[in-house]
């Protein structure tokens, strides 16, 4: 190994560790590594910036706009809601729901699909007494598998497509991945409807389950001088044996009192940290002298005003809130919302509400003002997973929705026939949407997830560094020395497994970008079809089923489903094995 190869490897290992431990937003971590590579001369400026002009990356940007225009009308969501209402029985309902959802995910961004259907499915389950935990993980998995069917099904496919073009290969056709994606989706859904359904946790149903989840929420109340039980014990103040509420800590200036005994004296200025049911929080707030701290001037009493409501949101991987305290995030000015309570799975947070440092996957109970809907739509900081009924909800004319859907279908047909490239077709679709006023430039800007694009473009540069220094060829040689004696199928299994491990630990797009140079180097060494490795890497990078952090749709359903980390491992590990066997089997049959 050369010094440059060692340096690049150290940078990549550091990048993987930073991504795994969530030291900063993924896009900033990868971009920082790219800047170091450029400043140290490993990459020229042109090589470092090549990802920003890559056709695959730019196609993803256009696809965000096109998908946003189609989903803006709500036609898909309304159709699926009516379709779901006609379902009877849990397993038959899963079959009726997740097959069309997987089909939609082949052509639309899967993240908005999961965000839109999480509250719909959760409410439907509660009305019928089913456990939402039986449905929400399959919702995420169905969209992931559906995304493997077409070129535009997931950004990962477009990333690999763009890298293939950069390396002088032909890239993917619209339905080339369907040869693997269709059987994978069919077998995967069959697993979820049978064995997977039995492995899924059946947490308590209905309102009881909601209350149990709410006990994990943390809220903060301040003792005002007007509180009638100042200088009385916790027992005398009636704060010890509250139904549905538990006082876990008192914060008094720099002192923390935990656990709280019955004889602890309550003083003015104390901050009382509770876990409990939302309805009981509201009742407790009505006690004179106790004030619920939401980080804003809003209170729960403002819910009586139709312009305010409670919503549940999940902090995203791309969130600028990551590692910030709620106080630093300035929720009131940024989102017109206050944080009423915070839920973090499998962890009791020991902090005042304003001092809690947010992490991806945290569930926030927000008291939202009248401008919340408009402000959150332009943000990728969190996903709202409860129904919004504010007056600001925009209802598009159905004709515009059908027109945007028709344009998307025509563009797909044009690409399939070969008249236009994917980038040209998406660019034309965006132009038609602008001319037809289906979407405004401001809405287009809000739909584009710039953090995702920065991550992908930066990852391209890191991939270039692996190729230019010879690190990719060196790693390919190491894999070959181990796998080649066992046969080509063993090499494919190694490539799939390594890509899948990366995608669980970091992000799917970054995993694909790191593995493509290695895969193409192996193909070159063996003088075999490079497309076999490209397809394997594309599928493996998307097939993230084992952890809630590997793929953003898994993260979205994590809190609302009340899942434990181990639930994903128990249900997702067999699906990962199925995905690996199907992918390697089909690729081996088609290309070798």
TrEMBL record:
Alphabetical list of Gene3D superfamilies matching this protein: Regulator of K+ conductance, C-terminal domain (3.30.70.1450)
Membrane association type: Multi-pass membrane protein
Listed PANTHER family: BASIC AMINO ACID ANTIPORTER YFCC-RELATED
InterPro entries (UniProt xref): Cit_transptr-like_dom (IPR004680), DASS-Related_Transporters (IPR051679), Na/sul_symport_CS (IPR031312), RCK_C (IPR006037), RCK_C_sf (IPR036721)
Subcellular location per the Swiss-Prot or TrEMBL entry: Membrane
GO cellular component entries: plasma membrane
Keyword Membrane on entry: yes
PROSITE patterns reported for this sequence: NA_SULFATE, RCK_C
Chain ranges of the RCK C-terminal domain: 206-290, 298-382
Record has Signal as a keyword: no
SUPFAM superfamilies: TrkA C-terminal domain-like (SSF116726)
Transmembrane segments: 6-21, 28-45, 57-76, 97-121, 141-165, 177-200, 402-435, 447-466, 532-551, 571-591
Signal sequence, start to end: none
Protein name: Sodium:sulfate symporter
One GO MF term attached to the UniProt entry: monoatomic cation transmembrane transporter activity
GO biological process: potassium ion transport
Keywords: Membrane, Repeat, Transmembrane, Transmembrane helix, Transport
